Amino acid sequence: MVIAFIPVRGGSKSIPLKNIKPLCGKPLVCWNIEALEACEKVDKIIVATDSAHIKDVVLSKKYKKTEIYDRDAENASDTASTESVMLEYLNKANLPKDTIFILAQATSPLTQTIHFDEALDYYSKGCFDSLLSCVRTKRFFWSESGQSSNYDYAHRPRRQEFAGSLMENGAFYINTVGNIENYGNRLHGNIGIYEMPQYTATEIDEPDDWTYIEFLAKKYNLTNVNCERIKLVLCDVDGVLTDSGMYYSESGDELKKFNTHDGMGFKLLREAGIKTGIITTENTKIVENRAKKLNVDYLYQGKREGGKLEAAKEICEKEGISLNEAAYIGDDLNCMELLSTVGIPACPADALPAIKNLNGIMVLGKKGGEGAFREFAEWLLENKI
């Protein structure tokens, strides 16, 4: 039997709610879960968390092999070790000693199914007591005392001839339940190394790591966000296409400020064969005129609480598609129901906190009225697989 164990806390300080923050449109913790779900050698996946938010996100995905373990608060503190929660779980699970146990780190989202497959094959040969993942680095290392650690500085090698050093990348560790219980550690004895691609070297700990990992995920086509299925893109008006401001002329006429960059976003989607629509609770001539200018396929005005979802369903029915094939960008509470239902939800950078914290939502870098729709449109088109 093979069990994968993913410990995730809710109390990340450097990146709040890091483990469910969308990375390229998908919650961070889901990257490892989905790679393991696709690994036929893995029988069960345990997500050990203290967070109700994380628990809700994972359970909402309805994975086949994944279960939640509610870890004790004392083993979810800033100072608690990973070993402590592993041992806590094993003490309660009472698993057979020969069970193969994979500790997978959610902070290494670029780990793919093939990496777990190959590492388990390597470990199953019985040559090692435990195994860890590493990457090869060709950097030259020095000690604080001024000693070169992995090369002879007097005979500096050329990089193409330098074997380099193996660096632990923190992606995963493999051992047996019996060994972990006996030695109280993820590793022991004769340790094997599974070498991973160099691009998997970075673990997410700081905001800069997050930005870099997103870049790498897109570069190596690892996003696993299937934007190809998106056939319809819907959006709100106030707070998305506008800055939410209410402007009035001296004669009392209401005015709205739109962004021309968003107009190009609609054009790019149309040229790619993707239908577009606007759904708003307001009912104004201004929006009607803007919709005509943008050449949108659908305009639904005056949709109040609950009405936006019904409007989206009606549009999908006309197009012969499901809500899973639609994307929507909204910013306020009356968008919540629709955002929670579509295939890919997004919101501007200045959306309400309750919207930005929705499970799986993509929080854009631009604010409403400042090109947020254009950013979303370009992201959807760039990520078509």
**Shape verdict:** elongated
Mean pLDDT: 89
Care to count the β-strands? 17
Largest sheet: 7 strands, mixed
Distinct helical segment count:
12
Percentage of residues in DSSP E strands: 15-25%
Global structural class: alpha/beta
Helix-strand string: EEEHEHEHEHEEHEHEEEHEHEHEHEHEH
Give the low-pLDDT segments: none
Q: Strand arrangement, largest sheet? A: 5-4-1-6-8-7-9
Radius of gyration: 25 Å
Distance between the termini: 35 Å
Helix content: 25-40%
Secondary structure elements and their pairing?
Layout: E1 2-8, E2 22-23, E3 26-27, H1 28-37, E4 44-49, H2 52-60, E5 66-70, H3 82-93, E6 100-104, H4 113-124, E7 130-137, E8 165-176, H5 177-183, E9 191-196, H6 207-219, E10 232-235, E11 247-248, E12 254-255, H7 260-271, E13 275-279, H8 285-294, E14 298-300, H9 307-319, E15 326-329, H10 336-339, E16 344-347, H11 353-356, E17 362-363, H12 372-382
Parallel strand pairs: 1-4, 1-6, 4-5, 7-9, 10-13, 10-15, 13-14, 15-16, 16-17
Antiparallel strand pairs: 2-3, 6-8, 7-8, 11-12
